[in-house]
Amino acid sequence: MFERFTKDARAVVQGAVECAAGVKAPVVGAEHLLLALLEREVSRGSFALAALGVAERKESVRQALEDARRRAGLSQAEADALAGLGIDVAEVVARVEETHGVGAMAGGPKGVGRRSGRPGFARDAKEVLEKALRVALARRERHIGDEHILLALTVRPGVPAEVLADHGVTHESLTRVLGGAGEACA
């Protein structure tokens, strides 16, 4: 599949690997793909993010992803659902961090997906990359660009889609900015 990736898409994947390795994450997750997309400057994905106003709010996106990481990867919607059951996720995080240190819930099982010091890909990241292929095919485009990875992040439920939506980036808004019809590959 990677032979169909453009130079920009490959740079996003490589950036995600570096991002995960930089924070000693056991695996590359979908959030690392989003973080790598935020770092791109001259690509279709970066153009779309800039057109939707995210370029000026990159730090806000990073902070929202960090907050979710500290909640053990729970989205805000999941935290709200637990609150409805009387479970205060912020309080749970605070107590765990009080005992075990800041970011104690952020880690995953050590060594999972690691080979030669590089993190492997988590299921959510693999699903995003597969969905990027489906998005490109739905748009009748031959190669997978970083914009397809971005579109895929918006249609796969989870923290990255929630954070993007909170910052005004949805599949519909991206499709408008990118000028393509394409189907939502949910």
From TrEMBL:
Matches recorded under InterPro entries: Clp_N_dom_sf, Clp_R_N
Pfam families hit by this protein: Clp_N
Keywords: Repeat
Residue span(s) of domain Clp R: 2-186
Domain of life: Bacteria
UniProt protein name: Peptidase
Organism listed in the record: Streptomyces griseicoloratus
